[in-house]
Specification:
Layout lengths: L1 H7 L3 H23 L3 H25 L6 H23 L6 H25 L4 H26 L5 H15 L11 H19 L4 H32 L1
Helix pairs in contact: 2-3, 2-4, 3-4, 4-5, 4-6, 5-6, 5-8, 6-7, 6-8, 7-9, 8-9
């Protein structure tokens, strides 16, 4: 009972709830502005519930003193990603306004450069915050790759699925779960995926150029994951 009272007094419980409410508000705004359909509402709502549940579970495990300003920025990004998810889900049944989809995705990508900087400046960087940030990035890339696949082919979702395949492989190969060293190249490759997918989703380039850009982004991602896997394998041999 004492533990429950302590948890209830923590400010991050309210933050998680506010995030879920903000997601529903954004879905309603999209509904009124662009006519969000049933598929979009369902996808966005499921995303909100899943995000809230996963975040609350992680917070209970790590038990931080506060949610922190950087995590609030990431939570705002997650809300935008939920909007992108809703629009992409709707796009399989009808045409959706690309401007709205690209706008939400672009702001989410831009804010990716903000939350880390806020965490460092405020001294609130935590493993939980880094993981939260990474999961939001990974899901945005997964959703965007699914949208772009409609124009460029079924191979495109390999970009979004690769990170999840790596996690699945780690269940069978525990050495893949070891902590990787900081890498600017890894961060740059991840940023390239989002930028290239947004440009391809916008349809601003000729189809051949979009195909080449997305294929190049996938090749970079394969190289990045391959390099990390090799490093982890060699680190395993040294233990």
């Amino acid at each position: 009972m004492a533990v429950q009272r302590q948890y209830g007094s923590r400010p991050f419980a309210a933050d998680a709830a506010v995030g879920a409410v903000a997601q529903l508000v954004l879905l309603e705004v999209l509904c009124r502005a662009v006519g969000l359909g049933t598929a979009g509402w369902l996808a966005g709502s499921v995303f909100a519930v899943a995000t809230g549940a996963a975040l609350t579970r992680a917070l209970r495990r790590s038990w931080p003193d506060s949610f922190g300003p950087a995590n609030r920025v990431t939570l705002a990004r997650a809300t935008l990603v939920g909007g992108v998810t809703a629009l992409v889900a709707d796009s399989f049944d009808r045409r959706v306004p690309v401007t709205a989809l690209i706008g939400l995705a672009t702001v989410a990508l831009v804010l990716d450069a903000v939350d880390g900087r806020v965490a460092r400046r405020t001294g609130t960087a935590t493993p939980l915050g880094a993981r939260f940030d990474m999961e939001v990035d990974a899901f945005l890339i997964l959703v965007l790759s699914g949208y772009v696949a409609k124009a460029l082919g079924p191979w495109v979702p390999a970009i979004g699925a690769m990170r999840y395949a790596f996690v699945a492989a780690s269940w069978a190969l525990p050495w893949l779960r070891a902590t990787l060293p900081h890498s600017r190249a890894r961060k740059a490759v991840a940023a390239v995926q989002g930028i290239v997918l947004v440009v391809a989703a916008a349809g601003m380039l000729p189809r051949e150029a979009e195909f080449a850009a997305v294929a190049g982004a996938l090749a970079l991602l394969v190289w990045s994951f391959g390099r990390d896997a090799v490093w982890l394998w060699r680190a395993r041999e040294r233990v």
